[in-house]
Specification:
Length: about 425
């Protein structure tokens, strides 16, 4: 495995870093064309189109949408059928995720001005949310927890989950997770047709207000296209990890932390920053050694070779500067005083502090959400949270006195904008 080595002392470092981070996010025209056709068909024909595409793409032979809906009894049976350790782990993770997200709940508020005018904010939950969960071989019960629990904590009335079941293959852990989270309805559909069904509604599947959850390129393209009809969480790129280490952590630990993201897919990115050149050598040796025992060896090797890097920096302050440029999805601060260093980090999806805090803890059970901004979007966006399932309405109650004060201001500004009806509307209330 070839591991790219860079140093900030190189004259062309900035150009090399930019090239390393470059990821082609432009939508493939052929995928977009297919998705556009599927969405148009689902919008026009509803259940019939969803059923047709599901049978074609997932190699199923369902004759009705009812056959594709999983009952609450089947979800509960999946939970009851889990081996004891798996069930305990799933429930423990769910409790931790719930406990963390309960602290994110936004509250309504208001204040009264001296003249009796009341201003404020009313917070309400979305009515119905669609949760997309990958199915088949790429089955992630953790994805159910991270999307469903904050929605339920927010007070979403109904959660509709869609999960493809290629060749009728249902993942019992995914179904069990849906039971643990209290998902209201589950349908065995996936792809662009599932996104279309959630966005537009069909005879069987009700229209949702927002769609969250990861999927393949067709799902991502469909989410892009339906945004505006419904809300979406984000269009996520490949998984990323950036590790900053002072050179005092076991190199095997750091190598495996890098692998933990590289194993997701060939486009994933794993980068290490350290001021210690000898430590970078040790980590590279660990990577070469440990790669041989990895079941997903081929994926890791491709990911690290094409998009990974070991970068020598001048010091940890420079590492923080580079981190803020990279704006990684996952950031590990494997240093002596991670709390102090975290204050220098402005842009990162999630910050894992200390030598014992591997990124994998965040993926499954630490509590914070693992749905995070990728591709440098942490510069302007945040992890999925309860906030994404709540919305705010402004509250304005003008007292009689307040109408006099504000009415004059509004009238003057409205005339300045040439909007006489606005001005007169305010002036009617002046005494």
């Amino acid at each position: 495995m070839k591991v790219r080595r860079l140093s900030t002392t190189q004259a062309d470092f900035d150009a090399n870093l930019k090239a390393l981070l470059a990821f082609e996010t432009a939508q493939d025209d052929s995928i977009d064309a297919v998705v556009a056709g599927i969405l148009k068909d689902v919008k026009a024909r509803g259940d019939a189109a969803v059923l047709e595409y599901t049978n074609r793409f997932d190699k199923t032979n369902a004759t009705s949408m009812a056959a594709l809906e999983i009952s609450k009894a089947e979800l509960n049976a999946a939970l009851d059928g889990l081996e004891a350790n798996s069930r305990a782990a799933l429930q423990a993770a769910a409790e931790r995720v719930k406990s963390y997200h309960e602290k994110q709940l936004m509250q309504s508020w208001s204040y009264t001005e001296a003249d009796g005018t009341v201003l404020g904010q009313q917070v309400t939950a979305l009515d119905r949310v669609g949760l997309y969960v990958p199915g088949g071989k790429a089955a992630y019960p953790s994805s159910v927890l991270m999307n469903a629990i904050p929605a339920k904590v927010a007070g979403v009335k109904e959660l509709i989950m869609v999960v493809p079941t290629p060749n009728g293959e249902k993942n019992q852990l995914v179904l069990a997770a849906a039971a643990v989270c209290g998902v209201d309805r589950v349908f065995c559909i996936g792809g662009a047709q599932a996104v279309g069904a959630l966005a537009y509604g069909t005879q069987t599947i009700p229209q949702v207000d927002k769609i969250t959850g990861p999927g393949n390129a067709y799902v991502a393209a469909a989410k892009r296209r339906v945004f505006g009809v419904v809300g979406i969480d984000m269009v996520a790129g490949p998984s990323e990890i950036l590790v900053i280490c002072d050179g005092k952590t076991d190199p095997d630990w750091i190598a495996m932390d890098l692998f933990s993201q590289a194993e997701h897919d060939e486009l994933a990115q794993a980068i290490l920053l350290s001021p210690d050149a000898a430590f970078l050598d040790k980590v590279e040796a660990s990577m070469q050694k440990l790669l041989q025992e990895m079941p997903r060896k081929a994926i890791i090797e491709t990911s690290v070779t094409n998009r990974g890097a070991l970068i020598q920096v001048k010091d940890l302050d420079e590492a923080a500067e580079i981190c803020n440029y990279i704006s990684p999805e996952h950031l590990e601060l494997s240093v002596e005083d991670p709390l102090a260093m975290s204050k220098k980090i402005k842009h990162a999806g999630a910050i894992f502090m200390g030598r014992n805090t591997c990124e994998a803890l965040g993926d499954y059970c630490a509590g914070p959400n693992h749905v995070l901004p990728t591709s440098r979007t942490a510069r302007f966006s945040s992890p999925l949270g309860v906030y994404d399932f709540q919305k705010r309405s402004s509250l304005i109650f003008a007292s009689s006195a307040g109408a006099q004060t504000m009415g004059k201001i509004a009238s003057t500004l409205a005339h300045g904008e040439g909007l006489q009806s606005h001005a007169r509307s305010a002036e009617y209330r002046l005494k």
